[in-house]
Amino acid sequence: MTAGTDTVAHLFAATFGGSPAGFWRAPGRVNLIGEHTDYNDGFVLPFAIDRATTIALSPRDDRRIRLVSTFDEAVVESDLDAVEQRAFTGWSAYPLGVAWAIGERRGAPATHGFDVAIDSDVPVGAGLSSSAAIEMAVAVALNDVWGLGFDRGDLARIGQRAENIAVGAPTGIMDQSASVFGQADAAVFLDCRSLAVEQVPLGFDAAGLVLLVVDTKVEHSHATGGYRDRRDACERGAAAMGVAALRDLSVDDLPRAQELLDDVTFRRVRHVVTEDARVLESVAALKAGDLVRFGELMDASHVSMRDDFEISVPQLDAVVEAAQAAGAVGARMTGGGFGGCAIALLPADEADALAADVLQVFAERGWREPVSFTVIPSDGARAL
Ligand code: ADP
Ligand code: MG
């Protein structure tokens, strides 16, 4: 038993008594490149990280559901009637939302409840998708114990429905896809229109590189309004250009877009169109083992988000500048923007120095203390 399973085994025994039917684990994720492309039917390239949610779960003979998490040790009591009525409160909306979404996808509500104990080392709200980790851990577990036979694509869609409908967060399917399709030493290349998935080898380790994540601790205070505004601009741009989604435009269409659109809308469109192109070129570069080119694409992605999409903040720009000064192969903000994390791909023996530089820069400017850590491309959701 590993450390994570120990914790949930004890929590399960202490809360519900006895041993669980099994243990399951699902990771968080980081997005390497492809930002604000998901809702434009475009491309993303996340990987599953070595931080995950671990659960111990047993099916029950009745309709009750009991949940406990190290996140908040109060035991939540619910049942399948509440699930069908989508009557959820607090964090239990994530696991219970998955149970609801499974029923929706099967076209038949669940008939048996379950007990589940949950632990996670994915930082919550840091942009590494602790939400997809808990959803996918519960989804693979229920798929197994209820004998449902859903494939990984189904499970990702179930997690997205839980997040959209049960939790009420209007998110795409990237996080869940990364969490279920993740593979050690590989990224998950996802086409957000067809939902086709391809694992792309990364080779960071063999090249002596690591990916450092810097959580700027800047809250996404304008995130909701900013996100809505960017989505609206993309929809406007696509409509004016006569396409279903910005995915349908290429860089060759940009001169026409510049003539047709106002300056702000044009720059929003240019970010998405060039970002899609950068994801495709990244996949080609990684397949060719050209990490230098991949790093250049990361840098270009950051500039595009900063200047065209205007979703960066000074703290994110400062991390990217420090990374470039420290000799990183590439660096960019990651996630929806307006705060959150930046990532840097750099030689393993430079990571501590960059983390120290970033601390110093933030202290000098009187910013909140950032938190830095490396992440390793890891396997996706699974039974243990
Ligand atoms: P993130 O960027 O980490 O996905 P979200 O706001 O999307 O941030 O999701 C975080 C929420 O997910 C938490 O507030 C909590 O409700 C739920 N959550 C995540 N991990 C756990 C856990 N281990 N136990 C209980 N709830 C969790
Ligand atoms: Mg989330």
TrEMBL record:
<feature type="binding site">
    <location>
        <position position="69"/>
    </location>
    <ligand>
        <name>ATP</name>
    </ligand>
</feature>
<dbReference type="GO" id="GO:0000287">
    <property type="term" value="F:magnesium ion binding"/>
</dbReference>
<dbReference type="GO" id="GO:0005524">
    <property type="term" value="F:ATP binding"/>
</dbReference>
<dbReference type="InterPro" id="IPR013750">
    <property type="entry name" value="GHMP_kinase_C_dom"/>
</dbReference>
<comment type="pathway">
    <text>Carbohydrate metabolism; galactose metabolism.</text>
</comment>
<dbReference type="InterPro" id="IPR000705">
    <property type="entry name" value="Galactokinase"/>
</dbReference>
<dbReference type="InterPro" id="IPR019539">
    <property type="entry name" value="GalKase_N"/>
</dbReference>
<feature type="binding site">
    <location>
        <begin position="35"/>
        <end position="38"/>
    </location>
    <ligand>
        <name>substrate</name>
    </ligand>
</feature>
<comment type="similarity">
    <text>Belongs to the GHMP kinase family. GalK subfamily.</text>
</comment>
<dbReference type="GO" id="GO:0005829">
    <property type="term" value="C:cytosol"/>
</dbReference>
<feature type="domain" description="GHMP kinase N-terminal">
    <location>
        <begin position="94"/>
        <end position="183"/>
    </location>
</feature>
<dbReference type="InterPro" id="IPR036554">
    <property type="entry name" value="GHMP_kinase_C_sf"/>
</dbReference>
<keyword id="KW-0119">Carbohydrate metabolism</keyword>
<dbReference type="InterPro" id="IPR022963">
    <property type="entry name" value="Galactokinase_bac"/>
</dbReference>
<keyword id="KW-0460">Magnesium</keyword>
<feature type="binding site">
    <location>
        <position position="227"/>
    </location>
    <ligand>
        <name>substrate</name>
    </ligand>
</feature>
<protein>
    <recommendedName>
        <fullName>Galactokinase</fullName>
        <ecNumber>2.7.1.6</ecNumber>
    </recommendedName>
</protein>
<keyword id="KW-0299">Galactose metabolism</keyword>
<keyword id="KW-0479">Metal-binding</keyword>
<feature type="domain" description="Galactokinase N-terminal">
    <location>
        <begin position="11"/>
        <end position="59"/>
    </location>
</feature>
<dbReference type="GO" id="GO:0006012">
    <property type="term" value="P:galactose metabolic process"/>
</dbReference>
<dbReference type="InterPro" id="IPR020568">
    <property type="entry name" value="Ribosomal_Su5_D2-typ_SF"/>
</dbReference>
<feature type="binding site">
    <location>
        <position position="163"/>
    </location>
    <ligand>
        <name>Mg(2+)</name>
    </ligand>
</feature>
<keyword id="KW-0067">ATP-binding</keyword>
<dbReference type="GO" id="GO:0004335">
    <property type="term" value="F:galactokinase activity"/>
</dbReference>
<feature type="binding site">
    <location>
        <position position="131"/>
    </location>
    <ligand>
        <name>Mg(2+)</name>
    </ligand>
</feature>
<keyword id="KW-0963">Cytoplasm</keyword>
<dbReference type="InterPro" id="IPR006204">
    <property type="entry name" value="GHMP_kinase_N_dom"/>
</dbReference>
<keyword id="KW-0808">Transferase</keyword>
<dbReference type="InterPro" id="IPR019741">
    <property type="entry name" value="Galactokinase_CS"/>
</dbReference>
<dbReference type="InterPro" id="IPR006206">
    <property type="entry name" value="Mevalonate/galactokinase"/>
</dbReference>
<feature type="binding site">
    <location>
        <begin position="125"/>
        <end position="131"/>
    </location>
    <ligand>
        <name>ATP</name>
    </ligand>
</feature>
<dbReference type="Pfam" id="PF10509">
    <property type="entry name" value="GalKase_gal_bdg"/>
</dbReference>
<dbReference type="InterPro" id="IPR006203">
    <property type="entry name" value="GHMP_knse_ATP-bd_CS"/>
</dbReference>
<dbReference type="InterPro" id="IPR014721">
    <property type="entry name" value="Ribsml_uS5_D2-typ_fold_subgr"/>
</dbReference>
<feature type="active site" description="Proton acceptor">
    <location>
        <position position="175"/>
    </location>
</feature>
<feature type="site" description="Transition state stabilizer">
    <location>
        <position position="29"/>
    </location>
</feature>
<feature type="domain" description="GHMP kinase C-terminal">
    <location>
        <begin position="283"/>
        <end position="361"/>
    </location>
</feature>
<dbReference type="Pfam" id="PF00288">
    <property type="entry name" value="GHMP_kinases_N"/>
</dbReference>
<keyword id="KW-0418">Kinase</keyword>
<comment type="function">
    <text>Catalyzes the transfer of the gamma-phosphate of ATP to D-galactose to form alpha-D-galactose-1-phosphate (Gal-1-P).</text>
</comment>
<keyword id="KW-0547">Nucleotide-binding</keyword>
